[in-house]
């Protein structure tokens, strides 16, 4: 399955979730290719940290910042992988558009701040554009960096706004703001590999993986 983790907005957790999803699938025994489609190369750096630590399984990762290159590479290598996860940078780029044409599934992480929720209108338009030239793109939105504990009124308001975007299906598997996510992400580790273990972070990622795949 090809999953694009995308949002025109930066800092919403695209790289964090792309790395966690890749690791969850690899740890489940699948051959995973992670494509870093952002010039900043954050996903690539995380996977480099993992290979320097010689952590198994290793994850194949490549960085291509432009759309035509991503498209050509994915089409060439499609048969080699069980899952391809594409992390695409925070603006309306050719990489993002290419990812939306290639993917079976789009995951749009959003943070529960009003300006992030507005950015979902951009994503809705991009999904419309992609669907006008292809069939079968599933598009989901998931809240990331939610307040710890029960969802606050702000968080619930953001969810209500997202459910009004018809192009995106809201996944009721929010991820809270947790140190485990930022610590694991930087080191190229799954939250399941991190010590001390954070059972809540693990449960949140597992719930998301189950919904997506
Ligand atoms: N659920 C979370 N809990 C805590 N920190 C998070 C969470 N998701 C992302 N972060 C942190 O927020 C910052 C932005 O996340 P990142 O995945 O790089 O966003 P993007 O790729 O969308 O720009 C990073 O420092 C990351 O570690
Ligand atoms: Mg990123």
Automatic annotation (TrEMBL):
InterPro entries cross-referenced by the UniProt entry: CobQ/CobB/MinD/ParA_Nub-bd_dom (IPR002586), DNA_Partitioning_ATPase (IPR050678), P-loop_NTPase (IPR027417)
Q: Mind listing the UniProt keywords for this protein, alphabetically?
A: Plasmid
Concerning SUPFAM superfamilies, the annotation shows: P-loop containing nucleoside triphosphate hydrolases
Pfam families for this protein: CbiA
Note the superkingdom of the native organism: Bacteria
Boundaries of every CobQ/CobB/MinD/ParA nucleotide binding domain copy? 3-189
Gene3D superfamilies reported for this sequence? P-loop containing nucleotide triphosphate hydrolases
PANTHER family named in the record: COBQ_COBB_MIND_PARA NUCLEOTIDE BINDING DOMAIN-CONTAINING PROTEIN, P-LOOP CONTAINING NUCLEOSIDE TRIPHOSPHATE HYDROLASE
Q: What is this protein called?
A: Chromosome partitioning protein ParA
Q: Which organism is it from?
A: Sodalis glossinidius (strain morsitans)
Q: Specify the taxonomic lineage.
A: Bacteria, Pseudomonadati, Pseudomonadota, Gammaproteobacteria, Enterobacterales
Q: Which gene encodes it?
A: parA_2
């Amino acid at each position: 399955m090809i999953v694009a983790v995308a949002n025109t907005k930066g800092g919403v957790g695209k790289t964090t979730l792309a790395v966690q999803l890749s690791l969850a699938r690899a740890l489940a025994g699948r051959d995973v290719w992670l494509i870093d489609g952002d010039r900043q190369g954050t996903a690539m750096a995380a996977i480099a940290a993992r290979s320097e630590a010689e952590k198994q399984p290793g994850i194949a990762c490549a960085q291509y910042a432009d759309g035509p290159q991503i498209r050509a590479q994915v089409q060439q290598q499609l048969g080699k992988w069980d899952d391809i996860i594409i992390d695409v940078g925070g603006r309306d780029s050719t990489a993002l558009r290419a990812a939306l044409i290639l993917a079976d599934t789009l995951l749009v992480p959003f943070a529960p701040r009003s300006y992030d929720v507005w950015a979902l209108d951009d994503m809705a338009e991009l999904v419309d554009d992609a669907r006008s030239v292809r069939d079968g793109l599933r598009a989901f939105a998931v809240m990331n960096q939610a307040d710890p504990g029960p969802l606050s009124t702000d968080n619930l308001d953001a969810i209500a706004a997202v459910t009004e975007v018809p192009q995106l299906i809201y996944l009721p598997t929010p991820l809270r703001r947790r140190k485990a996510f930022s610590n694991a992400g930087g080191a190229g580790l799954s939250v399941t590999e991190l010590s001390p273990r954070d059972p809540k972070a693990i449960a949140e990622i597992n719930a998301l993986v189950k919904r997506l795949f």
